[in-house]
Design a protein that fits this description.
With 156 residues, the protein is an alpha+beta fold. It has helices at 76-86, 102-107, 116-155; strands spanning 2-5, 21-24, 29-33, 38-46, 55-64, 68-72. α1 packs across α3 (116-155). The N and C termini lie far apart (61 Å).
Length: 156
């Protein structure tokens, strides 16, 4: 596992055949470029500000902005859910803008299975549960929208 702060220099472009490598910012993809500095599976969070501690995942050949802390690991799904449960926001400090430093993440002690196959299997289970929850929420929202339109038509 590797933990650090992005150090990429870049000019942002829209995605195209020439500009195919993602530029990762503190909360999402912020653009594309024609070179990459990092490669692998990443968990990312804002280093400073209101989003410090809010995490997301990305994979591939990328550039990472300097306001972003990254964790590069092999069992990214498992680690993502462990860190989501841990709530990294509680590591942030500062009186003005919250701040998370990669050195604080390096000090973090988590109890996790040491067997990579077990981590992988748990990651798949967590991802599957997350996907099922999202699908059910989507279906419920659509069902309520359809019902709302149906009831509206009955009233007219």
């Amino acid at each position: 596992m590797e933990i650090g702060t992005g150090k990429s220099r870049f000019i942002k472009f829209n995605k195209s055949e020439k500009y195919m490598y993602k530029i990762l910012g503190s909360t999402s993809i912020i653009g594309y470029t024609n070179h990459f500095d990092y490669e692998g599976d990443f968990i990312l969070t804002a280093r400073v500000g209101a989003n410090a501690g809010t995490i997301y995942r990305e994979s591939g050949k990328v550039k990472i902005s300097d306001n972003t802390v990254f964790i590069k690991a092999s069992q990214i799904n498992f680690l993502y859910y462990v860190l989501t449960n841990y709530n990294l926001k509680r590591l942030s400090f500062g009186t003005g803008q919250p701040l998370i430093k990669s050195s604080e993440l390096n000090k973090l002690k988590l109890e996790v299975p040491t067997n990579e196959l077990e981590q992988q299997e748990l990651g798949v289970i967590f991802f599957t549960i997350d996907t099922l929850i999202a699908a059910n929420e989507y279906n419920l929202k659509n069902a309520l929208n359809i019902r709302g339109r149906f009831n509206l038509h009955l009233l007219m």
